[in-house]
Amino acid sequence: MSHVVVISGHPDLEQSFTNTVILDQLASRLDSVDIRRLDTLYPDYKIDVAAEQAALIKADIIVLQYPFYWYTMPGLLKKWMDDVMTFNFAYGPEGDKLKDKELIASFTVGGPQDAYDPLGYNHFPIEQFMYPIQQTAYLAGLKYNKPVYTHQMVYIPGVYNKLEDVQARARDHGNRLLSLIHTLSNSPENRIKSFVANWFSAMDKLEEDTSSYTTALAEDLNMVMPEGTFTGHSGFRDWYAGARKVFKPDCVHTIEQIDIKNEGSGYHVELRIRLIADTFEDSHLNGQSLNLLVNEVWKLSMSDNGQITIHDYLVTPV
Ligand SMILES: Cc1cc2nc3c(=O)[nH]c(=O)nc-3n(C[C@H](O)[C@H](O)[C@H](O)COP(=O)(O)O)c2cc1C
């Protein structure tokens, strides 16, 4: 399951009739979600940049959830963007931290659809107001999705709309957003990302049982490791037994980079993995603590039902 980070840019959710409904729906229907309510986190507008960047790094899908204010996002969300999208994080020579994550702008609009038309009082279609966000996504390497938005969401008792109508539209909005999140989570790229994340969290634990790994390995697996070459399931088990004699459990594998290419017949995955681990005294590493970086190249196939199989697994120290 993809991890979803929702940045709520409403400046005061206590006063919200629609964004709050959408956020509650996301909270109750997504398994792996971090909803960051900027109004309660940062009532003084002082954004904790490190905390926000750390949250984004964990995300597969980033949702910006906000009310449409003066044809764009509220100032609080713009401040978040100005502060968080820094040099060498979102752009610049090392600014690849958001690369290939999915971005969804999800917002509620006060005006009716026919106002957003050359002949209407707002003149331009909503999509034209999206250009700054769209281009920001391109610059940061984020995958820009068509926005999810809903018109006629302003509720002023006795003046604009009925509460039950705006809230019904908000629930429909939430359903459309959830369906897009579901579609993106099931894309081959996102399935592979979840698979890789699960693989390394199992490797962190280094449990004795190898069945959860071997179900994902081709019978004729080709594994080229710094320790030597290993073939098939028995080869994997030999390598794994050797690793368990050297590395203590509860090590930490961090996926610093992942690049997935669809080669037609399968997927070519390039990874940069950092391993922080303690080793056993009686191993050839004599109890040293390690912090090392490796490059990995995996060749995968995916069946029609999304089952992933590893065919080639190549690891080289950096
Ligand atoms: C400061 C402000 C600016 C707004 N600007 C626009 C706008 O440019 N276009 C529009 O259609 N609605 C506009 N609205 C209406 C909001 O989009 C609408 O109230 C909001 O989406 C409702 O969300 P909520 O119930 O979560 O507060 C504005 C509202 C406020 C308070």
TrEMBL record:
Record's InterPro entries?
Answer: Flavodoxin_fold (IPR003680), Flavoprotein-like_sf (IPR029039), KefG/KefF (IPR046980), NTF2-like_dom_sf (IPR032710)
EC annotation from Swiss-Prot or TrEMBL? 1.6.99.-
User: Annotated Gene Ontology MF terms?
Assistant: electron transfer activity; FMN binding; NAD(P)H dehydrogenase (quinone) activity
Q: Name one Pfam family in it.
A: Flavodoxin_2
Q: Where is the Flavodoxin-like fold domain?
A: 3-158
Matching entries from SUPFAM superfamilies are given as:
Flavoproteins, NTF2-like
**Which keywords does the record carry?**
Oxidoreductase
Taxonomy, superkingdom:
Bacteria
Protein known as? General stress protein 14
